[in-house]
Amino acid sequence: MSNPSILILPGDGIGQEVMAEVKKIISWYGDKRGLAFDVSEDLVGGAAYDVHGVPLADATMAKAQEVDAVLLGAVGGPKYDVLDFSVKPERGLLRLRKEMDLYANLRPAQCFDALADFSSLKKDVVAGLDIMIVRELTSGVYFGTPRGIFEENGERVGINTQRYTEAEVERVARSAFELAMRRNKKVCSMEKANVMESGILWREVVTRVGADYPEVELSHMYADNGAMQLVRWPKQFDVIVTDNLFGDILSDCAAMLTGSLGMLPSASLGAPMANGRPKAMYEPVHGSAPDIAGQGKANPIACILSFAMALRYSFDQGEEATRLEKAVEKVLADGVRTADLMGPEGGTPVSTAQMGDKIIEALDASL
Ligand code: NAD
Ligand code: IPM
Ligand code: MN
Q1: Which domain holds residue 237?
Q2: What pLDDT score does 275 carry?
Q3: Binding residues for NAD(+)
Q4: Residues contributing to the annotated binding site for Mg(2+)
Q5: Is the ipTM of this structure higher than 0.90?
Q6: Are 168 and 269 contained in the same domain?
Q7: Is 224 one of the annotated active-site residues of the chain?
Q8: Which of 12, 106, 199, 244 could form a disulfide with 191 if both were Cys (CB 3.0 to 4.6 A apart)?
Q9: Residues 279-308: pLDDT tens digits?
Q10: Measuring CA to CA, which residue among 305, 314, 244 is closest to residue 279?
């Protein structure tokens, strides 16, 4: 049997720096655990635009459809701000998500004990936090039509459309309930059914799907209240299911509960392929961080934990995923910190590469 295949798309800015650390970890699994992967690498985002004039070449898209898992770093940067909207780096990422039909984006926010003091919230609010945001990723206002900038009555008008079909809500709701069954059996659905028809439909469909999961406690919350509750008392939540735009915003917010945006991984999952594995792309929640790119300051943990999610969801290697997560936990417990995890009391931060090396040392120590 051939090895499982991975397509690496480092992208732009710190995407390249954090992915370099993931590559070391993939090699470690080959060398030390006999887990060999067929790894290929390609361009996405601004890096692809620079070479091909588009943020995702058709050949790269085709490769992404064939592999067992895609690992993506980050896309975007000020250099590309002037480009036409249709070829902006972000369009490459959105094309991957849409054409691979990766409708369920799992964004776990877990607060490691060693960082509980570091969150901008009080320690007892975040200590032990373990929530899962399930963000719908292929529809909603990101993709709905009509969209564009039009001329209307002598002025320009910018239009985007929030649009959800019942089937789109149903499948992401099902993902959320299935996850909840393996966790603490609670789902909170967030929309704005008070002001949006799409929210009314969302709530109805989630409620209907919930009837298939009588053991799961389902609640509904308006997304604005949800944002407030996330910082007030996040431990009230287990699984949160929400739409594409609300999920984008709420997950950045949840990232700070864990100490830094540099800590939050994600898995973008679609329907099962012929081999039973879901179509999948793994991507940190953060972006290309132009303010620190090229300085070796980026925290690689979000990208590394995204690979742990790949081990769990694409490669049936739950124990190895836990090994990697424990290695990250150990390194943080030892006080190893990148600059984003430095408190006001200061200290000496490690570089992106040093953080990767420390995690490899902890992996070695786990054998
Ligand atoms: P960003 O996530 O890139 O950065 C926000 C802030 O968080 C910055 O101060 C940055 O330095 C910090 N940060 C982010 N990741 C970090 C890490 N791993 N370690 C340490 N600090 C980290 O968001 P932005 O500045 O709003 O966007 C910059 C570019 O990235 C834009 O072009 C945007 O479209 C793109 N973006 C891409 C993705 C993606 O590829 N998935 C996600 C978000 C933003
Ligand atoms: C994310 C990002 C993307 C999004 C952008 C870069 C397209 O913010 O993955 O969270 O808005 O989905
Ligand atoms: Mn985002």
Answers
A1: 119-258
A2: 86
A3: 77-90, 287-299
A4: 224, 248, 252
A5: yes
A6: no
A7: yes
A8: 199
A9: 999 999 999 999 999 999 999 999 999 999
A10: 314
Domain boundary among 258, 290, 311: 258
pTM: 0.97
Question: For residues 247 and 133, is the Cβ–Cβ distance under 8 A?
Answer: yes
Phi/psi of residue 176, each to 5°?
Answer: -65, -45
Asked if residue 284 and residue 252 are part of one domain, the reply reads no
Whose structure tokens read 């036409």? 84
Distance (angstroms) between ligand 2 centre and the Cα of 137 equals: 10
288: helix, strand or coil = coil
- Note whether 96 and 124 are same-domain residues: no
Burial of 202 from C-beta contacts in 10 A (0-12 / 13-18 / 19+): buried
Q: Residue 247 and residue 136: Cα distance in Å, rounded?
A: 7
Bridge partners of residue 331, in order along the sequence: none
Ligand nearest to the CA of 9: 1
196, 87: one domain: no
Using alpha carbons, select from 179, 195, 198 the residue that is nearest to residue 238.
Answer: 179
Q: Is 188 helix (H, G, I), strand (E, B) or coil?
A: strand
CATH of the domain at 270: 3.40.718.10
Asked if 299 and 15 touch (Cβ cutoff 8 Å), the reply is no
How many domains are there within the chain?
A: 2
Tokens 């459309």 identify what position? 161
∠ CA 42-45-50, nearest 5°, is 85
